[in-house]
Write a structure and sequence with these properties.
Layout lengths: L1 H20 L4 H8 L20 H7 L4 H25 L2 H27 L7 H29 L3 H8 L1 H19 L5 H30 L3 H24 L3 E3 L2 E5 H22 L3 H4 L3 E3 L3 E3 L11 E4 L2 H9 L5 E4 L1 H16 L1 H13 L15 H23 L4 H9 L3 H17 L2 H5 L1
Antiparallel strand pairs: 1-2, 3-4, 5-6
Helix pairs in contact: 5-9, 6-7, 6-8, 6-9, 6-17, 9-16, 10-11, 10-14, 10-16, 11-14, 15-16
Length: 446
Amino acid sequence: MAELRKRKEGEEKLVESAESDHIDSEDDKNFSDSKKQSIDLSSTIPSGTNKAPSMFEKFLADLPDRWRNWVVRGVFSIIMISFFAIVIYYGPLALVVTTLVVQVKCFEEIINIGYAVYRIHGLPWFRSLSWYFLVASNYFFYWESLVEYLGVMINRTDFLRVLVTYHRFISFCLYCIGFVWFVLSLVKKYYMKQFSLFAWTHVALLIVVTQSYLIIKNIFEGMIWFIVPVSMIICNDIMAYVFGFFFGKTPLIKLSPKKTWEGFIGGGISTIFFGFLISSWMCRFPYFICPISYNETVGMTLDCEPSAIFRLEEYVLPGFLSEPLSMIGIQPTVKIYPFALHSLSLSLFSSVIGPFGGFFASGFKRAFKIKDFGDVIPGHGGIMDRFDCQFLMATFVNVYISSFIRNDSPQKLLTQILYLKQDQQLELYQLLKDSLGHRNLLNMGT
């Protein structure tokens, strides 16, 4: 019996020792003593949904909370839409810069939640490491876009040409520096939290940087591929809120108790009509439909010959419509921009799948008992609260362009040719000349 008692005491000591080894700080001890209660960051992460500027308080004092939030949310929605219109007016480069600013702010909000979750404020070097990986990731992704679309201009500068040639290698070296930096910063008793935050940073990069990179690629394909999808998400969000506010009775999903089927359906139908109308209107302007390109004569330009999807085509109506119309002497055809038909696919995705980006964010916030990602935008919350659906939409648009739209252009092929050595370029020129000559195409050109 005495031997059995000693064995049990030894096992208890091992368990206590093992538990103490997993305690990183006094915060963990308190956390363990309180039975590891669920994480509540409501007092740490500021909320902006119910926040109103002080200048509004005088005018909103007599309104019920429900209508008070309606007014604040509506006013700042108009402000954001106006700012969006101004950025579009200043062109694609302004859109790119705005995307970068939004990306940085979204990354900051996600990383701040990570710091709050693991409750370590003096973790060595980790805040610097997070931002270093953001810079390194941006260099890798965005330089790729510049090379693809502005390669002719970049190749004219020797210094930039070196960065193009060895871009992947430089990017890998930058990541290795960050990786070694992280390993050297590891501190005893903080291993678990440091690795958790390392993983948190990479997930944030996956969500924010890669998605914003796809947004940039969409902009370079033509601003219409950015403006129309973003406008659809905005329209769906606003109209779902309006229909839900006035008619909502049937809950849609438990993650977002305020979302209703009435708002979901009303927002979806509104988005389909809105998408078709704005697409048909924007197809008329080269400013919106032309991809960004660089011409050695005029520099960066948005002038082009509209591709087939941006030119009116005549379509025959279905039989159940064409026959009655023919009987009364009306042509059973209609002229529509093909892009407007493509916009129906974008509208369906933005209204059916797009909201699930918001539901995902709602689940994330509920996991940590926070209402918003921040309080930057009164009535709305943080920047991430407004762009949770936009990132998912950007991925779909990029995949859609790659699958159904994109064709290699002479400009992009020229960019690839300029990466070759001079003797290889001359060889390619001679091969192309011989091929065109055998097919008697050179004479056609003259």
